[in-house]
Structures are given as structure tokens and as C-alpha cells.
Write a structure and sequence with these properties.
Blueprint lengths: L17 H8 L5 E5 L3 H12 L4 E5 L4 E6 L2
Antiparallel strand pairs: 1-3, 2-3
Length: 71
């Protein structure tokens, strides 16, 4: 099999999740309430968009967590 070099082909955009879309809209000090099952993923989305140490989360009750953008 011969490998052919190609140029001028644009890279398609990454698939964005709903969490990444929300994280992209957040300003420093903003927070969101999410189900426990999505809390870690929301923190990861904020950190992916805004950098390390840019998110913090706390439990509100057994089922709900609040996630802040801190940086």
C-alpha cells in the first residue's frame, strides 16, 4: 500500500458536548447545578476550556452538585 501525502485539507472541528458548550459560556464566578453523575465531567469541561485549576465543585445534596468556574 502506498501512502499518499495530501495538503490543503482542513481539520474538522472536534465534537463538542453540551457540557463544553456551557463551560465555554461561563465567566469567572459563574456556577451551574448538575446531577451527581455529571459533576466530574462538568469540572473537566471547564478545565479543558479555561485551563487547569479553573473549576471547583461542592455537593448540595445526595443528587446535586454545584460547579464553579474559578479562573
Amino acid at each position: 500500500m502506498e501512502i499518499k501525502i495530501q495538503s490543503g485539507i482542513p481539520i474538522p472541528p472536534r465534537m463538542t458536548s453540551n457540557l463544553s458548550i456551557v463551560a465555554n459560556k461561563m465567566n469567572v464566578g459563574d456556577c451551574v447545578d448538575v446531577p451527581k453523575s455529571q459533576a466530574v465531567n462538568m469540572c473537566k469541561a471547564i478545565r479543558r476550556v479555561h485551563g487547569e485549576l479553573s473549576a471547583s465543585m461542592r455537593s448540595l445534596d445526595k443528587e446535586t452538585w454545584r460547579v464553579w468556574r474559578t479562573k
